[in-house]
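Lab notebook, bench 4. The sequencing result for the construct came back, and we need a structural model before the next group meeting so we can plan mutations. Quick request posted to the team channel:

Model the 3D structure of this chain.
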Amino acid sequence: MLFLFALIAAAFVWLLGSGLFARTGLPTRRILYADVGSTFPQRAPLISRRYRLSGKPDYVVRVKDGVAPVELKSSRSPSSGRPYEGHLFQLAAYCLLVEDVCRVSVPYGLIRYEDRSIRVDYTPSLRASLLVLLDEMRTARRDEECHINHSQPSKCRSCGFRSGCGESLI
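Done. Here's the predicted structure in token form:
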């Protein structure tokens, strides 16, 4: 009797989680990986030794031409209709990780903002820009002094290093 109750409860939780996921407007076909509080089992980070990169996309889903990472954002989408640059390169990094670790084709990724999803094609150009950015980041880490682009006071306001930063805008 206890087993039957547990089975029914598990089915209910699964259906509830599936329904919540479906309401996000994201593809629900075959979720392969999940790193969000949900009914899906959470996974370890993806690690690429080749690119010296690791990360945990919110979801990885099977799509028609391969697989696609999905990044969920709690903010509204930019008014420009294009993702923020940081979000774009975060998603590109997940595309690179999935491509390298899983050895699969990654045609695009999705950024799901509060109000809509933006599909980002994972092009050779985006991949090349990401690799350049990763090299720049590694070079900056080796330098004794690293200057940050402080063009957005809101980013300074929420930065964990603000108290020790000599360049803070706040």
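Residues 28-138 form one domain.
Will bring this to the meeting.
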